[in-house]
Amino acid sequence: MDRTNSRKSPKDDQPRAVTKKIRPDESGRPGASNSIVRRRMQSTPQANNPLERQLRSVLHRHGIRFRTHYRLVRLPRRSIDIALVRSKIAIFIDGCFWHGCPHHGTTPKANRAWWVKKIEANRIRDAETNTILRRLGWKVVRVWEHDDLHAAAQRVVRAQMFRRHYAPRMSHDR
């Protein structure tokens, strides 16, 4: 459990948090290294985050209509961040930390072994999702959080134009 003490820090005359490491829960996840980290991780939105909303806005301005957090029957416990169902285009917005960006991904120092395993599991699940969707006839577009949103939108526009004009009619099988 967290314990906070509002004693002043001698260096900067600011209240400081005195924390006790939080114990792992039943799932085996380690506890947060301190209450500040815990609050930051808990407040990170999994869906409808600012980057996702911005990309949806750019796509909408391009006249693209879509569904959000679209679930496929054949993909239990997984959803497509932005789905162009008629064109069968699946768009995922991947955070550099959570999905292990090769350029910007970092590994926390606290609970390092657990985080390495967790991020690698995310990468494996992403690759499996890509494979399953492609077998079902979907075009997968992955956008890193550091990618330019307008360039990402252009990739989606090109993929949609290609599918409309060159790809055979696809079923809307979920």
Question: Topology, please?
Answer:
Blueprint: H1 35-43, H2 50-61, E1 67-71, E2 79-84, E3 89-94, H3 96-99, H4 112-135, E4 139-144, H5 149-165
Parallel strand pairs: 3-4
Antiparallel strand pairs: 1-2, 2-3
Outline? globular
- The CATH homologous superfamily of the largest domain corresponds to VSR Endonuclease
CATH fold title of the largest domain: Endonuclease, Chain A
Secondary-structure element string:
HHEEEHHEH
Spatial order of the strands forming the largest sheet:
1-2-3-4
> What radius of gyration results from the CA coordinates?
20 Å
Mean model confidence by pLDDT: 79
| Total number of beta strands | 4
Largest sheet: 4 strands, mixed
Query: In the CATH classification, which architecture of the largest domain applies?
Result: 3-Layer(aba) Sandwich
Number of helices: 5
Low-confidence stretches are: 1-10, 15-23
Helix content: 25-40%
Number of discrete domains: 2
Which class do the helix and strand fractions yield?
Answer: alpha+beta
Task: Please report the first level of CATH classification, the CATH class of the largest domain.
Answer: Alpha Beta
Distance between the amino and carboxyl termini: 44 Å
Residue fraction in strands: 5-15%
Explain what this protein looks like in three dimensions:
- The chain is α+β, with helices and mostly antiparallel strands.
- The chain contains five helices and four strands.
- The chain folds into two domains: 8-43, no CATH class; 50-165, 3-Layer(aba) Sandwich (Endonuclease, Chain A), CATH 3.40.960.10.
- 38% of the residues lie in helices and 13% in strands.
- It has a four-stranded mixed sheet with strand order 1-2-3-4, sandwiched between helices.
- The termini are far apart.
